[in-house]
Structures are given as structure tokens and as C-alpha cells.
Specification:
mainly beta, 1 helix, 4-stranded antiparallel beta sheet, 7-stranded mixed beta sheet
Length: 129
Amino acid sequence: VQLQASGGGLVQAGGSLRVSCAASGFTSPFTFEYYSIGWFRQAPGKEREGVSCISPSGGDTWYADSVKGRFTISRDSAKNTVYLQMNSLKLEDTAVYYCAAGTKTATVYPRWYGSYDYWGQGTQVTVSS
């Protein structure tokens, strides 16, 4: 499974940005719909933290308290892509954002990096004042 994160960039505080995670390389029956997809971020000098996760069906989502109400995760099975819409961005949202794919453990422990089996390369999001 390969994950390609994209859509990062420079945005002013209060602005919006949408990052995408395109997935490929699945082997039946473990298709895109088999995996939960999570977003993590890592700022310089800080540990990687879980931001959001969406279940295989898309029916369940999880958000870290720090982004709840501002970020929205969604998935498009036709495009094998997961999106993270980020609104009301703050300076502290600046980080490299990574997407990851996991199975049942990710549904139960979405914030734990060990729940995920596959990782994308990351996309930089920079929020300026």
C-alpha cells in the first residue's frame, strides 16, 4: 500500500487549507475500503501526534481536541482518497502532516501511531501570522 499526501502550503492564520491522501497498491480483498485512514502531524522538536481518523466505511471519525470543530476528515472511495479540510488555522497547526492506513486497531486507538501499518511521506503546512 502506498500513500501520497499532498496539498500542504503556506496560509495565514484564520485561513483554510485542504490536504489530500491518495492511496494505491491494494491487493484484494484488502482494498481501500478495508482500511481506516488517519492523519498525524509533527512540528519541529515535537512528537508526532494524531490529528484525525476515519473508519473504513467513513461512518466514524475521530478528532484530537486541538482540532475538533475546525478540521473535517472525509473519504472518497471512487478516488481512493482521504481529505482533511482545515479551517480557522492557527500558528500551532504548523507541522508536517502525514497520512497513514491501519486496520481494526486504528479504529480503537486512532491517536496511536502504532495502530497504522502504512505511512505517506508527509506534506508541509505552515500557518503564518
